[in-house]
Structures are given as C-alpha cells and as structure tokens.
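Subject: Interface between my chains keeps coming out wrong

I've been trying for a while to get a sensible model of this assembly. When I model each chain on its own everything looks fine, but I need the whole thing in one frame so I can look at the contacts. Pasting all components below, labels as-is. Any help appreciated, I'm running out of ideas.
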Amino acid sequence: MNTDGDLKKEKLLGKSFIFDALDDQARQELANFSYVKRYAAGDKIFTMGEPGQSMMAIAEGTVRVTMFTPSDREVTLNDLQAGDVFGEIAMLDGQERSANVKALTNCTLVVLERRALLDVLQRNPILSVRLIELLCQRVRRSDERMIEIAFLDLPARLAKLLLRLTVAPPASEEKPLAKLSQSQSELASMIGNTRENVNRCLRKWQKAELINLQDGWLIIRDRDRLEALAHGE
Amino acid sequence: MNTDGDLKKEKLLGKSFIFDALDDQARQELANFSYVKRYAAGDKIFTMGEPGQSMMAIAEGTVRVTMFTPSDREVTLNDLQAGDVFGEIAMLDGQERSANVKALTNCTLVVLERRALLDVLQRNPILSVRLIELLCQRVRRSDERMIEIAFLDLPARLAKLLLRLTVAPPASEEKPLAKLSQSQSELASMIGNTRENVNRCLRKWQKAELINLQDGWLIIRDRDRLEALAHGE
DNA sequence: CAACGCTAGTGACAACAATCACACGTTCTG
DNA sequence: CAGAACGTGTGATTGTTGTCACTAGCGTTG
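Reply #2:
Try treating it as a single job with all components included. I did that and got this:
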C-alpha cells in the first residue's frame, strides 16, 4: 500500500528471471500494478477451467500444479518454488486456466493482472522478449515431457523423476541432493502411475543397490546408473 | 530479389496469422529480410539437434514434423499445411531444433532468420504480442496432447486423431471431411502405437458401423459416437 | 510374368501395468 | 490407549499393448 510495500514487491518480482531484465522504472511500474497475496498450506489458488486474468510469482513457499485425468485421477505436473512463476499462459491469452494450483506450504505470491502486464508490456519490449523466452522454455519442457510419458516405461520415468527432484535449485549450492522424502504415492502421481508399481520398482532398485529406502527417506546411492536407466537402459 | 519477389513474399507471409496484424511497412521490412526456399517431396528440411537460427512459414505444400523415440521409432507429431509456421521455438531462443521436419510434398517456404526477426521485433511490439499468442497456443496444445497420451487408451487416442484429421482447415468451407487416405501405419505413428493395434481397433469400429474401410479409404460414418469415444467412453 | 515393396488383416505369446486385496507398521488423535 | 489414517510391502488376477510370425492383395518395375 505504501512505499515500503512497493519496495518489497519490487524485490519479490526481481526474483523471477522474467523481470530481472527490467530497469528500475519498469519494475516500479509493475510493482504498482501488482499486489501480494498470501495462502495457507492446503489452500486452492486456482482451478482448471476458471477464467484466468492474472499470473503469480512465488515469493515464498511451494505450490503444486495438478490436473485431473479423464478417469478422474489427480496427477502432479510440477512443484514450484520461490522464484518460479505460474499461470502465465492463461494470463497472456486470457483463456481458461489449464491446471489446478494449490499451496503446499504457506505461500506469499505476487499477483499481476493481465491488464497491468499488457500495459507495461507495451512500453517495455524487453519484457516481451523475456516472456517469449519463458514460453519457449515451457514449450520445450512440455514436448520433452510428452515424449517421456509416451515412450519411456515406468523405470525410466521414475529414474528421471528422482533425478529431477534431486537437482539442486539454481539458487542454492551445486551438489545434487541425495535424499528425498516424497511418499511413494506422490511419486506415482508425478509419473502417472500407481503406488504399487512405484513400490515394486523401488524395491528392485534397492536390491540392486541403486537406492536406499530407510525410515521414510529415499537415498540415492548410484546416480550414474539411474541416469543410464533414465535414458532407456 | 526485386519488387516483384518481395511482393510475393509479403503475400506469403501474410498467410500466417502471426504476421497479418502487421502494418504494410513492417511486413515490407520482414519481406526484405526473408527469403523463399523450395523443397522437393521427401527432402529433409531440418533435423533434431541442429542449431536453429530460422523459422519457416509454409506458402505451399505439406510438411511433416517427426521425432525419434528413445527406442528409435519415428513418430509423427504433426502435419502442417500452407499458412502454418514451424521452427519458431528454436529460432526464438536460439537453441537446438527439437524435432525433424521433412517435406511431404513439394514445398515453398518463406524463411525468416533470427537476427532479422529480432530486429523487426524491436520496432513492432504488435509482433511480439502475436508471437506470445502463438506460443501460448503451442503450450496449451502440447499440454493437452501430453495428457491425452498419458491417460487415454488407444481407442480414445485414435478417435481423437481421426476427428482432428477430418476437421476442415480454417481456410476452407465448414463441413468436416468424411474420408481420409492415411495408411494405418501412418495413423499408428501419429498416436505412438503399432499398426497392428490400430488395425484391430479400426476393424472393431467397422463392425460397429462407426467407420467404413474401403479400398484404402477410411470413411467416418458416425462422428458423434467417435466423439464419445474420444472423451474416454 | 516374376520379384519386390507396401498395405492390410490376424493369431499367438510375452511383458507390463491396473486393480483389488490384504498385512504390517507408524503416527496422529480423540 | 484404542482406533483411525497413512504409508508401505506383496500376491493374485486381469486386461492391454508390443512383438513376432505369417498370409494375402495390389501395384510397380525390371
């Protein structure tokens, strides 16, 4: 509401690579047009099919992007962290939201309305370039994921998932994590498969000493062989 | 090379909805920077992994976009017609081409280099908006396709494909086509499945009087029931 | 016309995954 | 502390799909 709040929003927006190329004035403009919204863990942020007129940048917390399959199973498409943005597509083309997003932890989001962004867009060609880059990235990721889902078997997809979940976020230090705490059901929902099959696969890998399963943790022991599995044997 | 050639390119570029919002001057600029290239049926236009520095708009002909799966099977992602553009992604972000494209018929393409477009982009904010729209569309289509592949069974995907192949192109009249001539192997490669299974499925549909198979043609008899199948029973 | 290539049709079998069913432990909670 | 809720480990069954094998028709071409 005041200068202090705006400063904070500017900083939060700066965390997203989309906006870090803007000059101070443009960032200030964006901050003026945007607002901060908080969600508690478990809250729905938006739902598939709703008209979407805004995008969100995550300042704090984690959100989960999901969809329901035709057979009504919920699958997790992605978990997003601070610095990530979501809802861009619906905002940019003014169409329906194409997924569900809910807060996994308490979250602080910076919300940007369609009208506001279009406005700033007009005066800042650099911002369009950033958006175009973002979208290209999205297209590439989607296409890749599509091929994976269509043509890799469960072990390969699961291996890919484990690797993806354990790369260090760009912000932090370099070394990949070795432990994860996701439940097997969660893993299953992320690769569009069942808990049972994920379990059987993980067991096999434990026997083969690729991973360790200990009191709820999954520990990666042989990253290289997982990489090999991820590329179809 | 001369005014005549440029006029032609302008017209060809105008066929793509991306460029039809430009004013004459901008279109003229683009025409100056672009060039026409012809390919014979069967020619490779570009290959996955190559560095990509240009995009193409189809003026005449049909091209096929394919990929190789990890297990080395070639799948058809899409067939594109006059007015469609391809190669945008690699051009826009300067990364590798993410698919193979080959000419299905003799083709006339208008090629636009990355540098040229970036140049025009700077002076024509409207063009960025168009590109952003195009990319949004791409993202939505990819995501949709991903879900389809992951969670619909063969009959549903095949039904979807048949419906997609028989909607009239936006340019032509309204009524959906009823006949197609794609071979069953082609259909299989478009839905990431085998010819044998496509065949079995089509046979069943013929018995159920959903379609007719006659001397190489596939004739749709009951579009409504196909629509039903396409949405998971 | 014989040989070849391409498309279509179909049966047999194996591999994989979905589903159901159940047992076991932990942790949370009334 | 009892019981619910959840995560985990596994077996049995069933259905779908991929692979292989073989047959057959049709058109091109040498």
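Reply #3:
Confirming on my end. Residues 188 and 198 of chain B are 6 Å apart (CA to CA).
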